[in-house]
Design brief:
single chain; alpha+beta; disordered C terminus
Amino acid sequence: RFFGTAPNITATIKFGSDARLSDTPEQMQQRLASNDDYVVSPNVDSLVLTLQNPKPADLVIVGVRVLLGNASQQHVPTELLLFSRRIKVTEGMRRWYDIPFTTEEAMKAEKQITITTAASYTSGNAPIIDSVEVYAQTKDAFGWKDKQKGKPAAGTTPATTGKKDAAGAQERPGSRPLERALGSALNIMLRCSGDTDADQVVAHLAPI
Protein backbone atom coordinates (compact mmCIF):
# COMPACT_ATOMS: atom_id res chain seq x y z
CA ARG A 1 0.00 0.00 0.00
CA PHE A 2 1.08 3.59 -0.53
CA PHE A 3 1.06 4.14 3.24
CA GLY A 4 3.68 1.47 3.79
CA THR A 5 2.89 -0.25 7.07
CA ALA A 6 -0.23 1.77 7.88
CA PRO A 7 -3.12 -0.68 8.43
CA ASN A 8 -6.51 -0.40 6.74
CA ILE A 9 -9.14 0.43 9.40
CA THR A 10 -12.10 1.02 7.07
CA ALA A 11 -14.15 -1.72 8.72
CA THR A 12 -14.16 0.19 12.02
CA ILE A 13 -14.88 3.68 10.63
CA LYS A 14 -18.24 5.35 11.26
CA PHE A 15 -19.42 7.06 8.07
CA GLY A 16 -21.95 9.83 7.72
CA SER A 17 -23.26 11.71 4.70
CA ASP A 18 -25.85 14.18 3.50
CA ALA A 19 -26.74 11.62 0.83
CA ARG A 20 -28.63 8.95 2.74
CA LEU A 21 -29.93 10.38 5.97
CA SER A 22 -31.96 7.25 6.65
CA ASP A 23 -28.90 4.96 6.61
CA THR A 24 -27.22 3.91 9.83
CA PRO A 25 -23.43 4.32 10.10
CA GLU A 26 -23.13 0.54 9.62
CA GLN A 27 -25.16 0.63 6.41
CA MET A 28 -23.13 3.56 5.12
CA GLN A 29 -19.93 1.69 5.92
CA GLN A 30 -21.14 -1.35 3.97
CA ARG A 31 -21.99 0.78 0.94
CA LEU A 32 -18.56 2.39 0.84
CA ALA A 33 -16.65 -0.82 1.59
CA SER A 34 -18.16 -2.59 -1.44
CA ASN A 35 -17.20 -1.92 -5.04
CA ASP A 36 -20.73 -2.94 -6.06
CA ASP A 37 -22.44 -0.12 -4.17
CA TYR A 38 -21.98 3.63 -3.87
CA VAL A 39 -23.21 6.83 -2.26
CA VAL A 40 -24.93 9.43 -4.43
CA SER A 41 -25.58 13.05 -3.46
CA PRO A 42 -29.17 14.28 -2.95
CA ASN A 43 -28.26 17.37 -5.00
CA VAL A 44 -26.16 18.18 -8.05
CA ASP A 45 -23.82 20.67 -6.39
CA SER A 46 -21.77 18.53 -3.99
CA LEU A 47 -21.58 15.46 -1.78
CA VAL A 48 -20.40 15.62 1.83
CA LEU A 49 -18.99 12.52 3.50
CA THR A 50 -17.79 12.35 7.13
CA LEU A 51 -15.46 9.74 8.63
CA GLN A 52 -15.19 9.34 12.40
CA ASN A 53 -12.06 7.92 14.00
CA PRO A 54 -13.19 4.91 16.07
CA LYS A 55 -10.29 5.24 18.56
CA PRO A 56 -9.06 8.84 18.67
CA ALA A 57 -7.19 8.17 21.91
CA ASP A 58 -5.06 5.48 20.26
CA LEU A 59 -5.14 5.94 16.46
CA VAL A 60 -4.25 8.66 13.97
CA ILE A 61 -5.78 8.57 10.48
CA VAL A 62 -2.89 9.17 8.07
CA GLY A 63 -4.63 8.93 4.70
CA VAL A 64 -7.55 7.75 2.59
CA ARG A 65 -8.19 6.24 -0.83
CA VAL A 66 -11.32 7.25 -2.74
CA LEU A 67 -12.80 5.32 -5.67
CA LEU A 68 -14.66 7.33 -8.32
CA GLY A 69 -16.19 6.43 -11.68
CA ASN A 70 -17.04 2.81 -10.86
CA ALA A 71 -20.85 2.90 -10.77
CA SER A 72 -21.15 5.56 -13.47
CA GLN A 73 -18.59 7.67 -15.29
CA GLN A 74 -21.34 10.21 -15.92
CA HIS A 75 -21.43 11.02 -12.18
CA VAL A 76 -17.73 11.64 -11.61
CA PRO A 77 -17.14 14.88 -9.65
CA THR A 78 -14.70 17.46 -10.94
CA GLU A 79 -12.84 17.78 -7.63
CA LEU A 80 -12.39 16.34 -4.15
CA LEU A 81 -12.02 18.81 -1.29
CA LEU A 82 -10.18 17.71 1.83
CA PHE A 83 -8.76 20.04 4.49
CA SER A 84 -7.52 23.01 2.44
CA ARG A 85 -6.74 20.88 -0.61
CA ARG A 86 -8.57 20.73 -3.93
CA ILE A 87 -7.78 17.45 -5.71
CA LYS A 88 -8.45 17.43 -9.43
CA VAL A 89 -10.41 14.40 -10.68
CA THR A 90 -10.03 12.87 -14.14
CA GLU A 91 -13.19 13.06 -16.22
CA GLY A 92 -14.88 9.83 -17.40
CA MET A 93 -12.43 7.46 -15.72
CA ARG A 94 -12.71 4.79 -13.04
CA ARG A 95 -9.87 5.46 -10.65
CA TRP A 96 -8.67 5.23 -7.06
CA TYR A 97 -7.36 8.52 -5.66
CA ASP A 98 -4.63 8.07 -3.05
CA ILE A 99 -4.58 10.90 -0.50
CA PRO A 100 -1.83 10.65 2.14
CA PHE A 101 -2.13 13.30 4.85
CA THR A 102 0.56 15.72 5.92
CA THR A 103 1.51 15.70 9.60
CA GLU A 104 -0.56 18.83 10.19
CA GLU A 105 -3.59 17.34 8.43
CA ALA A 106 -3.37 14.09 10.38
CA MET A 107 -3.32 16.00 13.66
CA LYS A 108 -6.29 18.13 12.61
CA ALA A 109 -8.20 14.94 11.75
CA GLU A 110 -7.81 13.39 15.18
CA LYS A 111 -11.56 12.74 15.60
CA GLN A 112 -13.27 13.34 12.26
CA ILE A 113 -12.54 13.93 8.58
CA THR A 114 -14.83 15.54 6.02
CA ILE A 115 -14.54 14.73 2.32
CA THR A 116 -16.51 16.96 -0.02
CA THR A 117 -16.94 16.61 -3.77
CA ALA A 118 -17.62 19.35 -6.27
CA ALA A 119 -20.37 18.98 -8.86
CA SER A 120 -20.00 16.26 -11.49
CA TYR A 121 -18.56 16.84 -14.95
CA THR A 122 -21.96 16.03 -16.47
CA SER A 123 -24.33 18.90 -15.80
CA GLY A 124 -27.46 17.83 -13.94
CA ASN A 125 -25.95 14.55 -12.63
CA ALA A 126 -25.43 14.24 -8.88
CA PRO A 127 -21.85 13.34 -7.85
CA ILE A 128 -21.12 9.79 -6.64
CA ILE A 129 -18.47 8.32 -4.33
CA ASP A 130 -18.08 4.59 -4.97
CA SER A 131 -15.78 3.46 -2.19
CA VAL A 132 -13.45 4.73 0.53
CA GLU A 133 -10.50 3.09 2.29
CA VAL A 134 -9.08 4.56 5.50
CA TYR A 135 -5.55 4.05 6.86
CA ALA A 136 -4.18 4.80 10.31
CA GLN A 137 -1.23 4.49 12.64
CA THR A 138 -1.05 4.16 16.39
CA LYS A 139 -0.24 7.45 18.09
CA ASP A 140 3.03 5.98 19.35
CA ALA A 141 4.11 4.97 15.83
CA PHE A 142 3.05 8.37 14.51
CA GLY A 143 5.02 10.20 17.21
CA TRP A 144 1.94 12.11 18.36
CA LYS A 145 3.34 13.41 21.66
CA ASP A 146 6.54 14.79 20.16
CA LYS A 147 4.72 16.37 17.22
CA GLN A 148 2.11 17.86 19.53
CA LYS A 149 4.87 19.50 21.61
CA GLY A 150 6.52 20.80 18.47
CA LYS A 151 9.76 18.93 19.07
CA PRO A 152 12.11 18.48 16.10
CA ALA A 153 11.92 15.11 14.39
CA ALA A 154 14.53 12.47 15.19
CA GLY A 155 17.81 13.06 13.38
CA THR A 156 17.32 16.81 12.99
CA THR A 157 19.28 19.56 14.71
CA PRO A 158 17.49 22.44 16.43
CA ALA A 159 17.94 25.79 14.73
CA THR A 160 20.78 27.86 16.15
CA THR A 161 20.93 31.55 16.88
CA GLY A 162 23.76 33.73 15.67
CA LYS A 163 25.42 33.80 12.27
CA LYS A 164 28.43 31.97 10.91
CA ASP A 165 31.60 33.70 9.81
CA ALA A 166 33.35 33.10 6.49
CA ALA A 167 35.08 29.97 7.85
CA GLY A 168 31.78 28.46 8.96
CA ALA A 169 32.29 28.98 12.69
CA GLN A 170 29.41 30.09 14.88
CA GLU A 171 29.60 33.70 16.01
CA ARG A 172 29.12 34.46 19.69
CA PRO A 173 25.53 35.71 20.25
CA GLY A 174 26.96 38.81 22.00
CA SER A 175 28.98 39.90 18.94
CA ARG A 176 28.26 43.42 17.76
CA PRO A 177 29.45 45.32 14.66
CA LEU A 178 30.92 48.07 16.92
CA GLU A 179 32.80 45.49 18.97
CA ARG A 180 34.33 44.05 15.80
CA ALA A 181 35.26 47.53 14.58
CA LEU A 182 37.02 48.30 17.87
CA GLY A 183 38.86 45.02 17.61
CA SER A 184 40.15 45.90 14.16
CA ALA A 185 41.30 49.32 15.36
CA LEU A 186 43.10 47.77 18.34
CA ASN A 187 44.81 45.26 16.07
CA ILE A 188 46.24 48.08 13.97
CA MET A 189 47.36 50.09 17.00
CA LEU A 190 48.92 47.16 18.84
CA ARG A 191 50.68 45.82 15.77
CA CYS A 192 52.18 49.24 15.15
CA SER A 193 53.49 49.18 18.74
CA GLY A 194 54.86 45.66 18.31
CA ASP A 195 52.19 43.77 20.35
CA THR A 196 50.15 41.35 18.16
CA ASP A 197 48.06 39.77 20.90
CA ALA A 198 45.03 42.02 20.24
CA ASP A 199 42.48 39.20 20.29
CA GLN A 200 42.95 38.76 24.05
CA VAL A 201 42.11 42.44 24.57
CA VAL A 202 38.98 42.22 22.39
CA ALA A 203 37.81 39.06 24.17
CA HIS A 204 37.59 40.99 27.44
CA LEU A 205 35.55 43.84 26.01
CA ALA A 206 32.06 43.97 27.51
CA PRO A 207 29.28 43.57 24.88
CA ILE A 208 28.03 46.97 23.82
